[in-house]
Amino acid sequence: MGFSAAMLIGSALAALSRECKPTHVRAPFFIKNMGACAFDPGKLSYAGTPVEQAMCLMRGMDATRNLGPPLTSLPSALASRIGETAGLPSREEISAASALSTAGRIQ
Question: E strands, the chain, where?
Fold first, then answer.
């Protein structure tokens, strides 16, 4: 046990020493854009209308985990609800549905 502790302390000291740090200076990384959906951090929103935002954000991925092509349309059930506050399920209904769907998975 003493040997293990000494090895642990020795490796921690080596990692913190000057010999473990890179000698070259790395330039800071700047993000040139905020991705395919053009997120604006100043406004905390995405570019386009709410429907265009939804179509961009709901893009799938291909086998290499790159973004797939943008959607050309949304399912009508979703498109009719975007930007609306009426006709949506209540929080209680969503909670109840969520509890029912997860109840069968919890062992």
Answer: 39-40, 45-46
